[in-house]
Amino acid sequence: MRSGPVTMRVRRYLPDGNPLRRGTDRVESVAVLAFLIFAVLSLGAAFAVGAAVYRAGLAEEHSGRWVTATVTRDAPAATWVAVEGTAARLRTGVAWTTADGRTVTGQAPVPSAAKAGSPVRIWLDREGRPGDGPRSRIDTVADGVASGTATAALSLTALLACLALVRRRLDHRRYAAWDAGWLAMNRRRKPKDA
């Protein structure tokens, strides 16, 4: 029964008590096992990073609040402009009352051609500054997935690079041992013409 290439690869690294297995082969088996363990751990870490970024995004989504403000200056008629491929509203002066009764003024996005004195809803972030609105769920999900994927890719690339360096060093040792063996064998042979 013939073994496939995957089976032969796996058998190459399994401890089998073979007396012909070199020390470098055993070290390589340990290095591959360490790589597999760290790869699984790094995937867990990548998931944790992605989940933490997602939770931070959720917290940011819910960190502000909508309030009713009064427009203090007439808004321009054309308030939508393209900014980096997305639509953004221009800001104009507004005033709103805080929870402790103070009146605060600032710049906030308002509907097109809003007149001074008209009420508008504005989004305040956790510091009480006007913003464009709460963070979107798609941005939160995308950031979580991107950060988890990037963490996994970087950690697996670093682990593969370490494994490649270990294999290269072991191959140099194997080649040196083979060269030394050939030299020793050739020294033992006596020339027939001598």
TrEMBL record:
It comes from the Bacteria. The chain crosses the membrane at residues 30-54, 145-166. The keyword Membrane applies. Keywords: Membrane, Transmembrane, Transmembrane helix. This is Integral membrane protein. The lineage of its organism: Bacteria, Bacillati, Actinomycetota, Actinomycetes, Streptosporangiales.
